[in-house]
Write a structure and sequence with these properties.
alpha/beta; globular; 2 domains; 7-stranded mixed beta sheet; 185 residues
Length: 185
């Protein structure tokens, strides 16, 4: 059975249309996530990697917070961590902190601790083995970033990571810190 040239052309055009529709849906979804300015983050209790408990609002008392959902098996997460640790250290004098919320299973907790210790990261690390925080904060796609003002307003969201995007992440952090400085003056 041979294909009619009309059907071959039709099939190729439909593939292009499906591709364009998929791209448009992704763009719409990402812009909806990015434009959540003013939405308040809930005050959720967090279990830290060291076993202590805290809450998002307690962390926000120090200043702006960048939350990232990650897992040890997530290669883009690991690439992003290097940059987030740099930002955590670079802007800590402004009260800025990075909170990394791990999504590995309870059985992998030892792997999480050894990975963090081997890299000597300085950012805050929490665990969410049953993905309860991820579900409440829409962080199931990893990495998933949420930038939060000290008043708990979400100012920016981003999902995924490709090399080069660290510049946009730092730009968003700087915008928030500049806004904070103007308010403090």
């Amino acid at each position: 059975m041979s294909w009619n040239p009309f059907w071959i052309h039709y099939y190729r055009e439909m593939k292009k249309i499906n591709y364009i529709i998929t791209l448009l849906l992704i763009l719409i979804f990402n812009s909806a996530l990015a434009n959540q300015g003013g939405t308040k983050i809930p005050d959720l209790e967090i279990k830290m990697l060291n076993g202590q408990r805290t809450s998002i609002y307690k962390l926000l008392k120090k200043g702006p917070l960048l939350i990232d959902f990650w897992a040890t098996w997530c290669t883009p997460c690991k690439k992003l961590m290097v940059h987030l640790d740099d930002y955590h250290q670079k802007y800590t004098s402004d009260g800025f902190q990075v909170l990394m919320i791990n999504q590995d299973t309870p059985r992998s907790l030892g792997k999480v601790k050894s990975y963090i210790n081997s890299k000597k990261h300085k950012f805050l690390v929490a665990i969410d083995p049953n993905q309860q925080l991820a579900k409440k904060l829409n962080g199931q796609i990893m990495p998933s970033l949420i930038l939060v003002k000290p008043d708990a307003s979400i100012v920016w969201r981003h999902q995924g990571f490709m090399p080069g995007e660290e510049k946009e992440i730092e730009h968003q952090i700087k915008l928030l810190l500049n806004e904070k400085r103007k308010v403090d003056e």
